[in-house]
Amino acid sequence: MTTQLPSTVLIIGATGTIGKYITNAIVSAEPRVGRQISIFTSQATATSPAKQGLLSSWKSKGVSVITGDLNNSDDVRNAYSGVDTVVSCLGRNALASQIELLKLAEESKDVQWFFPSEYGTDIEYDASSKDEKPHQNKLRVREFIRDQVKRVKCTYVVTGPYLDMFLALAPIAEDAGGYDVKSKRAVIVGSGDEKVGFTTMPDVGKLVTAALQHPEVSIGKVLKVQSFVTTPNAILEEFEKQTGTKWTVDHTTNEKLREVEKEKWDANHPIATLYTLRRIWAEGGTLYDKTDNEVLGLTPGDMEPLGAVVKRAVNGEGY
Fold first, then answer.
1. Residues near 188 by Cβ (< 8 Å), separated by ≥ 6?
2. Which of 122, 154, 186 is the last residue of a domain?
3. Which of 82, 272, 276, 298 has the fewest CB atoms in 10 Å of its CB?
4. Who contacts 221 (Cβ-Cβ below 8 Å, separation ≥6)?
5. How far is it, in rounded angstroms, from Cα 264 to Cα 200?
6. In this structure, are 68 and 181 located in the same domain?
7. What CATH number has the domain bearing residue 126?
8. Does 109 lie in the same domain as 75?
9. Cα(115)–Cα(203) distance, integer angstroms
10. Count of structural domains, the chain
11. What pLDDT does 4 receive?
């Protein structure tokens, strides 16, 4: 595959947090992406009552469901049979397993194009990125691709933070920032005027789909994309506008954020990752002179506006 459109697409992690947005976009794309779309999932997920509505909606659009164990090489080989393009949507806890998935893809006779699960913060933004603890598994995957993957072409879609998740004020990590619609309260890191590049979760799906539809500019590339750039204060203003009231606002200084981040890592607390990512975002680690949206044929008008995401949060729709 050089510039050919994908013919058969396999999605791994399709029903996950970001996977469902990516899968929905691929399945609903016009023009259609490939002649056949399949998802590879566990038997437990395939039979879960909570997943039946989602799976049924995809099946009604011609999606095939392949069940198996992600850690079983034979199951993965069988899933790869006849597939030329693989899109991984695995979550943070499963990122390292992509090394074996890529190894099997390289060994297969069919897989030609692979999208590792790179959606999120840029892990090679600058010289300091290699030392950030949350980046280590993604960095290992990139290193394996550089050193060991020769036949299969890979595309990274780097989206920066998901705005939908950024809005949430976590009760166990309030000083990391967020917005609480119920109490009309916001916690903002820094002054609130620092710019951050965001992608909405539906737009992650739109951007991945655009990359699939434009192999001539996507294959072998690190695509840096986003919905828009805004500030925490602008987000607050949108919440106040939509709720018709002034909110209570607290601030966390960048110094305090770094202090708590260190405390959480020293305590081996899983929430430490959140503090690191929020610190990276607050310090400008999502900003680019130019993104690759236009290369993929997408204009600012094609992306979701801030107001749409805030409206979902105000309505309690979440993600």
1. 177, 232, 233, 236, 249, 250, 251, 252
2. 154
3. 82
4. 155, 156, 292
5. 27
6. no
7. 3.40.50.720
8. yes
9. 16
10. 2
11. 81
In a domain, 204, yes or no: no
Q: Please state, in angstroms and rounded to a whole number, the distance separating the CA atoms of residues 285 and 273.
A: 15
Cis omega (within 30 of 0) on the bond before 270?
no
Strand partners, 87: 11, 115
Residue 310 in this model has a pLDDT that exceeds 90: yes
Bridge partners, 288 (sequence order): none
Cα angle value 86/146/151 (rounded, 5°): 50
Domain annotation covers residue 313: no
pTM: 0.96
The burial class, CB within 10 Å (0-12 / 13-18 / 19+), for 42 is middle
Residue 179: which domain range? 163-196+230-282
Q: Is 127 exposed, middle or buried (0-12, 13-18, 19+ CB in 10 A)?
A: exposed
Same domain, 147 and 238: no
Same domain, 238 and 138: no
Answer yes or no: do 12 and 149 share one domain: yes
* Position 126 in a domain: yes
Q: Identify whether 138 is a catalytic site residue.
A: yes
Do 148 and 39 fall within a single domain?
yes
Active-site residue (options: 20, 138, 153, 206): 138
Task: Return mean pLDDT, the chain.
Answer: 97
Helix segments in 47-91, DSSP class H: 52-59, 73-80
For residue 3, what pLDDT band results from cuts at 50, 70 and 90? low
**136-166 confidence digits (pLDDT tens):** 999 999 999 999 999 999 999 999 999 999 9
Q: How many CA atoms lie within 13 A of 269 on its CB side?
A: 15
Q: Identify which of 46, 45, 137, 155 has the alpha carbon closest to the alpha carbon of residue 100.
A: 137
Which residue, chain included where needed, has tokens 């049924």?
56
The secondary element (H helix, E strand) that includes residue 68 is: none
